[in-house]
Every structure is written in structure tokens, then in C-alpha cells.
Amino acid sequence: MAEANTTKASPSSAQRQPYNSGEALGPQILKVMMRTHPSEGGAIEVVGDGSSGFMTRESDYFNGKLKYEVVHDVGAKCQVHWVRDPVVAAKDLGAVLGNSSIAVGSVPVKISGFRVMLPGPNYDVAYGIAESLAEQSMAWTWGIRGKDRRYSIIMSGSGEVSVNPQNRFEVSGTMSGYCRPGEEIVKQGREGNVLIGLESGGVHCSAIAYLLDAFEKRNFAMDRLFDKEVTLGEELAKPTRSYLMPIKRLMGHISWKVGSVNGVIKGMAHVHARDWRSGESGLLNLVDLVGAQNNLEVFVKRSHSLAPQEIFRFVHTELGVSAKDMIMFNNGIGYVMCIEKPYADLVIGHLRGSGIKADVIGEIRRGKKRLVMESPYDQNSYVYYKTG
Question: What is the pLDDT of residues 343-369, one digit of tens each?
């Protein structure tokens, strides 16, 4: 199969067409925004220009492999970014897509369904977001030993850029990936497995709506200082940390040192925040790491190095969220890996070598299917059952 040449479409002012109020941006504009990063010999071929993006064809590279797609949006955090720097929303989108994809061992190969809804016809924002995603995809390369080859993620497929009639800013997209049968990572934690936490970068996207509403009710301005020289707006605008590349490198290291990746990693979870009342809050989702087993519980201890960042302590004290209800936030733990205990040092050492602060935060032990957590905010332990 012939290799495609990398196409770089840097948007110049001459390429930015006049905007027709009330209509979606034309297909040609979307194609200008989309930059392709063709594979070096295998996963995806660019075969021409489609009506709203670059047409691609999957090669026989995927024969016999499992495909996985994940769809995400940035949610209420877009409103924070719109005020400060809208282009940063692309970093959040890239992070949540990549973090969810790698959680099942899926190697990303394509971003499609790229969608930007703008409060107004701001071309600089739309182009900036597409360019940021393109730069991220250039960094998401993956070298696999054996028959697989190195490639970059392609940005392709259908998409939409338009003005939101509700005057809101929204960004979303779809990431597609693959893994070989038998190499997928299924949540199947066993008694004695340890939980390794990866430090978060702060509040995750899905907790922002709750905080914006709570701050508004208490008249907390976004320029209010909460930690010396940091404002609430600056803190909430920090992009979600991406764990895609460190975990991909870790998987390659395990494959080389041990052989079987899913013989070491028994499940992974990106700690999304949700309203705890829904039964689907951030850390409570760790219960899923035991799969369908009802005789195991997840235990998270207090004595580890991933302490809650100052923003979470501010929420606890200033918003009056109880120690028990702080479960709705990630509390400094952005990602969790369930690991066979003999390999804990190998995993932690490799993650730290990639610049990720990681530590053992707990274990899987015999009990009811629930989460038992020693609170970092008081001296109590709290028990949670997932109902959703």
C-alpha cells in the first residue's frame, strides 16, 4: 500500500470565507481546518476529499482486530474557556478522548465527528481548536513491535462548525481505536490487586457545572483569589491532564518486560466527576474495577502521596461540601490502574519516569461490592454503594 504524504493546511486569512449568519460553515472551511496525519504504512489511508472532511479507508491492518469508539464533549467547562482562552477547550477534548480510549487498551488511530458550536462567527477560535487537536494528534504516535508499524492519528471524517442558537460554546468529537482480541483490558480486579493512582491536574470537566452553579449562588467571582495568586477562573480553566502517552509507553514496557499487558493491568478508570446523588460520581466509579464480582470491595486509603489540591479543600470549606460528599470530585486522583501486586513497583517506577506522580492508593479486598474510602478531609472512613 502506498504511503500518503502529510498534508498541512494552515488556515490563512485568505482561506477564511465570509460567514453567513444562521448557516453552518461550509464544507470547504471545515476541510481547511482539518489537517491529516497519514499513517506510515498501515492503519488508515487518505483516499481523497469528502464533502465535509478528508475521506479515509481502513486498510487490512484492522483485520481480526477489535474496534473501539469513544465520544466526548467538554461540557460546561467550555463556558470557562470562552471567557479566558477558547482554544484550550481542544486540550480538554483531546485529554478526555484519549484517557477513555486507553482505559480499555485501545490504541487511537482517528479523530472524527469533530464539532464546534460557537456563540458567534469567530473563525480564529474554530481554526485554533482544530490546529490544537492536530498538534496533539501528531504527538500521539505509537510504535508496536512485530508486524505493526508506527503511525500518527488522522483527523478526518464528517464534522460541523456552526453558530449555536443558544449562544453557547461547545466542543465535541469521536476517537476511534483498536486492540487485538485477547489484549483488551477488561475491568476484572481480583482480591489482592493494588490500586495505583495517577495525580490529577485539578478539577475535571464534568465537575465544572456543579462548581459554576455553586459559585454563582454564593456570588463568588471568577477573579476571586483562593490560593495566594491563583483565581477561581484560572484554576477551573486548567486543562484536563492527558494520561494517554504515559500509559501507552507503560503498556509497551510491560509487553517487553512481562509479555502480557492484561496479565498485569486488571482494569483502568479515568476519574470522571458526576453528581454523587446519581450513583455515578467520580471516585465511586472505582467500584466498576471489580467487574461483575459481588464479593469484592474497593478500598482507598488515606496514607498516600496524592493529596487533594487546594481547590478541593476550598470547595470543602468554602462551599460547605461534607467530607462524605466530596466523593463527587477526583480529590487529586485523576486516573486509577488496578494492578497485580508483584508488578506495582514496575508500574509506578515507569509512570514516574514519564513525569506522572503515581502511588499505591488502595487495594481490592474481600467484601461487598462497594467503595470504602478513608477521607482525606477528616479521620472518618465512608462507605459508598454504586446504584447507577
Answer: 999 999 999 999 999 999 999 999 999
Residue 283 is predicted with a pLDDT of 83
Intrachain domains 13-179 and 194-384 with the same fold: no
Residues in the chain: 388
Q: What residue spans define the domains of the chain?
A: 13-179, 194-384
Element (H, E) at 178: strand 170-179
**Partners of residue 265 on adjacent β-strands:** 339
Report how far residue 369's alpha carbon sits from residue 346's, in angstroms, rounded to the nearest whole number.
28
The region of weakest confidence among 123-127, 170-174, 185-189 is: 123-127
Grid cell of 33 as nine digits: 481546518
Q: CATH top-level class for 13-179?
A: alpha beta
Q: Say if CB 162 and CB 23 are below 8 A apart.
A: yes
| DSSP designation for 279 | T
pTM across the whole model: 0.84
Res 141: pLDDT: 61
- Residue 23, pLDDT above cutoff 50: no
- DSSP letter string, 16-83: -PPP-TTSPPPHHHHHHH--B---SSSSEEEEEE-SSSEEEEE-GGGTTPEEEEEEEE-TTHHHHHHH
Higher pLDDT, 231 or 163: 231
Of the candidate CATH numbers 2.60.120.760, 2.40.380.10, 3.40.228.10, 3.90.650.10, the domain formed by 194-384 belongs to 3.90.650.10
Distance CA 12, CA 214 (A): 41
Q: What is the mean pLDDT of residues 8-23?
A: 36
Residue 142 in 3-state DSSP?
Answer: strand
CB of 268 closer than 8 Å to CB of 336: yes
C-alpha cell at 296: 469484592
* pLDDT for res 375: 97
